[in-house]
Amino acid sequence: MAESILQLDGITCDYRLPGGGRFRAVEDVSLDLARGEVLGLVGESGCGKSTLAKLICGLEKPAAGAIGFDGARVERLGLRRRPRALLGIQMVFQNPYASLNPRRRIGRQIEEALALDAAHRWNLSSLLAAVDLPPSAADRFPHAFSGGQRQRIAIARALAAGPKVLIGDEPIASLDAFLQSQIAGLMRDLAAESGASLLFISHDLAVVREIADRVAVMQSGRLVEVGETEQIWHSPAAAYTRTLIEAIPRVDGRGVIPGSPAP
């Protein structure tokens, strides 16, 4: 495998419960992401996928273990500004409207992110074109766009910062089936064009199969299986992985996205 850019070593994360006690959301997770790789992280809702994404971005603090990114250690941000060394990790969230400032034109929001990229890989017009939006979109506010368009804007803003690692935290969950396939493919293609690695988090293994080089399967806070995508699909080692695959609608024996063309 190519050189690793992101390393998770024995990561555990607990949450305090109201009234006392703790809930273990992530337990002893070790995982690497290679440079230029697309890694799919799959599992049912509540299994700890989004918590893991927040840990990688420094939005949560692990109870145990360490996270390394491009030679730096990822620490929880707290009230501090994100260190410049960690600006190379950018995330696209499930709800694009919540992650965009409703009072600012999208062009301005993207330009602010562009200022963070010293390499100047993109400009505003090239990013809008890359996510299939017209130049006039820059002067509009987030409420003027559909859900799929807002997610494209969120992708453009994340790429504007010149990330080395792009994380999609259930970025297609709120979209219809046809848009899910489009947005997943767009993230894969633009990450490759930018030279970024992509960690794509989803509960939909059929979508992940279409874009990922490898797949990591998470259940109840633990990784139960990691492997090449087609190996996971055809010869899953874990019973839980087999359950996920068996739940996918099929056409001619191949898992497909409901509403999408048959392969």
Large-scale geometry: globular
The CATH topology, please? Rossmann fold
- Major sheet: arrangement of strands: 6-7-8-3-9-10
* Gap from first CA to last CA: 29 Å
Mean pLDDT over all positions: 90
Oligomer: single chain
Largest sheet: 6 strands, mixed
Supply the number of structural domains. Answer: 1
Helix-residue proportion: 25-40%
Rounded Rg? 18 Å
Q: In CATH terms, what is the architecture?
A: 3-Layer(aba) Sandwich
Order of helices and strands, N to C?
A: EEEHEEEHHHHEHEHEEHHEE
Looking at CATH, the homologous superfamily is: P-loop containing nucleotide triphosphate hydrolases
Q: Which stretches of 5+ consecutive residues score pLDDT under 50?
A: 252-263
TL;DR?
This protein is 31% helix and 27% strand. The chain has helices at residues 49-57, 96-99, 106-114, 124-130, 147-160, 177-194, 205-211, 229-234, 239-246, and strands spanning 4-16, 22-34, 38-42, 64-69, 72-73, 89-92, 165-169, 197-202, 214-219, 222-228, 250-251, 254-255.
Give the topology, please.
Elements: E1 4-16, E2 22-34, E3 38-42, H1 49-57, E4 64-69, E5 72-73, E6 89-92, H2 96-99, H3 106-114, H4 124-130, H5 147-160, E7 165-169, H6 177-194, E8 197-202, H7 205-211, E9 214-219, E10 222-228, H8 229-234, H9 239-246, E11 250-251, E12 254-255
Parallel strand pairs: 3-8, 3-9, 6-7, 7-8
Antiparallel strand pairs: 1-2, 1-4, 4-5, 9-10, 11-12
Helix pairs in contact: 3-5, 4-5, 5-6, 6-7
